[in-house]
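Question (not urgent): is this output format expected?
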Amino acid sequence: DLLAPGQKEVAVVITVVTKNGAEVVGMRSVTLMVRPAPAPPVIGGEEFPFNLRVKQVEFIGSTWATTRDIPVLQVDMVDPHSATATCSMSFSRLTADGIPDFAVIDVAVLDGVNWINPGHRFVISRVEEDATERTRTAKFSGVDFVDYSLARAYTPIKLNFPGQTPGNIIKYLIDTAQSRGWGPRIETSFSYTETSAGTPWESISGQEIAKGTPISQVLQGLVEDGKVEYRVRYEGDAAILDLFNPGTGSDWSTDGADP
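Got this back:
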């Protein structure tokens, strides 16, 4: 209301007067220049005042659905173009009190024209804090949804894979875990004999897996041994795990690629 139509800026003088009883003992003035805020971007008829948005999602029935937009103060993403991306987020205390201790969220970034998803869906959890140092903000940390899920699928018995392909090992572990009810929303694009690129597996190795080993640890071991590359991608309601021969699956122009 300070600016007239078409006016670019206006000076506002704030004066602070200090008194001792009725006597004026000090006076200080500050001049502020008031300018109109830039218009927020409009995409598809919808206004967005920030270039970042966080959406809480839930798997309802057989589909992922956005349940709410969450105002966020800060988002830090580590390795956003890898399959093992992590994140940390800060929310106002009022906002954070409405977020479950564990939640699934999507992050989108505005490139000036379109909303770009870095290729990850995160599971975030509240970071424990000192109860005696309650601040106005609350922090959450998160990991990729597929990484989070693979870390919570354990082998029920000791397993031995003599002379098997990486696809055989990982797909067997995922298929048997899903037969027990784990990870119904996770899909694989590779087979026992072919990579996600449709090429035959190049490496064959023996693998002994102890009871209680998470699939994520087995997969990471194959990566570190130079047997496989993998990436994670999301299409519709599916979270898809891609596996490739070493040196063939890492396209750094593609979100989610990771050697």
